[in-house]
Amino acid sequence: MHIVDVRTVLLTGPATDDPWLSVFKQSRTVALVEIETDGGIVGLGETYAGYFFPESVPLVVAYLKPILLALEEFEPDTLDVPLALARMRTCFQYWGRVGLGAGVLAGIEGALWDLAGKLQGLPVHRLFTDEAPGSLPAYATGGPSPWPKDDLIRKVAFYRELGFSAFKVSTGYIDGATREEVVATGPEQAAAMEAEKVELLRSEFGTELGVLLDGHMGHREGPTRWNLATASAVLTALELLGLVFLEEPLAYDDPDAYAELAASSRIPVAGGEQLSTSREFAAFAERRAFTIAQPDAAWLGIEGFLQVADRFARDGAGIAPHCWSGGVGYMQNIHAAFASNNVVIVELPPAAGPLHTELWGDSVRLEGGALLRPEEPGLGVRLTDAMRSAYPFRAGAEEFSSVPGKLMRS
């Protein structure tokens, strides 16, 4: 058997069917990679780069395509994914060791593992372990905390109705009518705001509901970006309120500050979604800077994800996969999570839109607040001609952090 084609598919469609998220973002892009064999079997993968810079993905895929076409003939159970990855990494090591090149490679890798699983008739997690659990705890990833506070209560109640027993919202608030941020500046004000928020949720929904907060400090600048003093004050104020974790309380440019924060807090400190290789995670692992690491298999690949999970497990730390790509990248993360042994909880987009649900089909099943183990061969994803026609690519729907001159639109 040979690989005969490698191609990129860019799509644009509704960002979500969640009314509490679609008010802020209505469209999204995904970048998919298809790898086809002469037997007609197609592997499908996704790179998270397609959410931010979709136009770049076909260039990188085309650059690496000849390496895949030149792979030696293989039997259905002998596709050597690590060999293919090693050759591609060697080829672009001057410019693709981290960042965009590594991120696009994650999509190619996902397609290779999907192909390998389909050829062997096995779900991808079975290519790594025979001991995957039957389910994993899951949470609804809810984006901004809406203002006024009554809207936050309604939002969480909506996630409860969908069957979730845990959810995550951002620190601060965003006014749903004006889209303006309601933020606190300084340690005392930020601590008071977040403690009041969690106390409100606890009084409304009880202590059994899992509450997670996301600082989103990986892309903030100016007065709204927390420093170590602010992050420490917030964590201290929340210590007795039973948080599952606080994500991205600091930017990623100071692993030592993360380490100090993690060492001083009873609340788990989570982070890592912007890190594109296991080597980048190593700087944080060596300092024990994340209590919970957040690898993303659509950004650093399934192989890299498992390397991160193994490295943090050695220190008794957990992982919570970051999952905000489309439906194919989501399944890359889920199979990697089921192949790991230190997963604390997995992220799930609630009321997901068609670029999730139509791609993952029946592979995502939530029961009792837990995500059930997928069993379809490969990643359990599909891309039909009808989907290609329904969601043609439209430039300008990509995600980015707004700055003067380039402002996000819904």
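Second entry:
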Amino acid sequence: MDKDTKDDVIVVGGGVIGLTTAVVLAERGRRVRVWTRDPVERTTSAVAGALWWPYHIEPPEAARRWALRSLDVYEKLAERPEVTGVRLVEGVMGETDLDETRSWAAGPLTGLRAATPEEYTGPVGLWARLPLVDMSTHLPWLRERLAAAGGVMEERTVSALAEADAPVVVNCTGLGARELVPDASVRPVRGQLVVVENPGIRTWVVSKDASGEMAYVFPHPGRLVLGGTSEEDVWSREPDPAVAEAIVRRCAALRPEIADARVLDHRVGLRPVRDAVRLEREPLPDGRVLVHNYGHGGAGVTVAWGCAEEAAGLCDPAASG
């Protein structure tokens, strides 16, 4: 292999998983190009409410490792929130108690406690101080960090992974992996959000009512992000007005001041869900290497840095299949 190209890596996919992976690779000295169909501002990641939380994904032990490594990174990034978009914000995870979290939270998180009745009116809630990521700042920051490390982003539509002509290709295509791999086990879970003016709310809340309907309120700079939905195998990216009204109604039940907040935007994202995250190295017949890093569902932000570092390790020539 030509010495001028042996360090080349193409990362396919420009969402939070692809960008974070590209940053880690570039900062380890690899020459990185990111191929992305959309600019970062129009990726699925741009829609995320983006609270760090160990959402259940498979495999559980690896997911815990990825999440806690990402937590370490976000806590450092939160020292410069206006630059990175990461802040440590207090709030309540409803219908969750300390016993449920001891398996992963012992040690890494401090200050976890039961929410008081004044903080949360549901049957049980967990008060926590967690990373909350403003993706409108974080994604462009990742793009700039990649450029500072010598990486390049190219907007292009990829119809087959074989088009990527580098010695190492990293597949971070999310839902696109369904067609590109192809992997029929990747499927969409539709999430709809409503963005409103913030009437002064400073803490987040996540809740689920008796019927299983979720509601969450995330305060970001200049706005509140309200959610949400989780509709399996629904491909529509068009906001549904009736769903939006229901989201606002559920969130106003948690924080009454939301009822009169002016609506700023409606957003829809399709979470790339898979039975288990695919993070593995695939040697190709022509001697090149394909590394897969997709299938994170709604946990992309939670595990991004842990998965990126593991994927970067799999790109190393010394890594085995």
